[in-house]
Amino acid sequence: MIYPNILKTIGNTPLIRINNLIENPKVTLLAKLEGTNPTGSVKDRPAHYITSKAERKGILTKEKTILEATSGNMGIALAAIGAQKGYKVVIVMSEVATPERRKILKSLGAELILTPTATGTTGAFQKAKEIYEKHPEKYFLVDQFNNPWNVEAHFHGAAKEILEEVKNIDVMIVASGTSGTLMGTAKRFRKNSPQTKIIGAFPEKGFQIPGLQNPHKDFIGKFFQEKLIDDYFIITEEESTKMVKKAAKKEGLFLGPSSGTALAAAAKIKEGLVVTILPDRGDKYLSTGIFN
Questions:
Q1: 217-220 long-range CB contacts below 8 Å, 24 or more apart?
Q2: Of 24, 33, 45, 103, most Cβ neighbours within 10 A?
Q3: Domain CATH number, residue 86
Q4: Domain, as residue range, for 282
Q5: What is the pLDDT of residue 201?
Q6: pLDDT (tens digit per residue) in 25-67
Q7: Residues 265 and 121 placed together within one structural domain of the fold
Q8: Of these residues, 43, 127, 187, 284, which one is catalytic?
Q9: What is the pLDDT of residues 179-198, one digit of tens each?
Q10: How much is the pLDDT for 220?
Q11: 43 tagged catalytic
Q12: Which residues make beta-bridge pairs with 70?
């Protein structure tokens, strides 16, 4: 199949069986590989969904600059969309961002504004909001933390695709950053697979794992709803890193820490058919030493 452009390749990512990470014979684990999206992460979905919907509604026009606060992946996805469609893109990101993410953003033509490490993604969001409020006529603020279209993107995206491929899922595990993937997945499963247990994979407080946040302790957007999930696991940075290394050596999967978090949570399940979403690849984290 010949695709008209790179944006048309977003979605329909592969669902694979994880064979060597789970030693419990009572568990069957499947994983959705979101790292196969064009810019290497699940964020391609909401970036494309939100900007496309904003264009249709006339909120995003060629006269406006796309503006967003991010820990990396959402910014990279938006920068690629900007390059494809001819938009200027301004990305606000904490200084803790890896050199890889900074270089990718600049190579895609985005303007990068860095905020202090100590304030994390919350500080980046506050800075982006400040920029927008000074010149609202100039910018389209994506606001992935509060934009309900983020949730819609996953409701109509990965969650829908999983349910089209697999039936009778016992447990669905989703790592949480903005919680858009978690909430969108939970809403789709509540509608189409209500018997499935929905479990969140949360990091410890303090932005310990790149791309993830603890919805109880860190920044909370508008759409996280505790009632939509059945339970959650707190995954440490050490557990996530250990699983990333294990996945590389035993499964041939080159994953980022958010994917390691999801797999670490899946490893805690005692029995049943378990499905998880692996948000991104490992290439943006080489400088962190995670693979040493």
A1: 218/120, 218/121, 218/122, 219/120, 219/121, 219/122, 219/125, 219/145
A2: 45
A3: 3.40.50.1100
A4: 6-36+157-288
A5: 98
A6: 999 999 999 999 999 999 999 999 999 999 999 999 999 999 9
A7: no
A8: 43
A9: 999 999 999 999 999 999 99
A10: 66
A11: yes
A12: 93
- Shared domain for 10 and 31, answered yes or no, is yes
Residues 30 and 49 grouped into a single domain: no
Task: Mark whether 246 is an active-site residue.
Answer: no
Closest CA to 73 of 34, 26, 129, 111: 34
Same structural domain, 177 and 98: no
Q: How far is it, in rounded angstroms, from Cα 194 to Cα 61? A: 39
Q: Domain count for the chain, please give it.
A: 2
Among 89, 116, 141, the domain-final residue is 141
Q: Which of 41, 258, 259, 284 is catalytic?
A: 258
Residue 1 placed within a domain: no
Q: Which residue is listed with tokens 């993830």?
A: 212
Q: What pLDDT was estimated at residue 121?
A: 80
pLDDT of residue 195: 98
Residues 13 and 98 occupy one common structural domain: no
Q: Are residues 284 and 166 in the same domain?
A: yes
C-alpha span between 52 and 251 (Å, rounded): 36
Mean pLDDT, the chain, whole residue set: 95
Kindly provide the b/e burial profile for residues 219-235, where b requires at least 16 CB atoms within 10 angstroms of the residue's own CB: bbbebbeeebbeebbbb
Tokens 């407080």 sit on residue = 205
Within the chain, which residues score under 70 in pLDDT?
A: 220
Closest CA to 66 of 91, 39, 48: 91
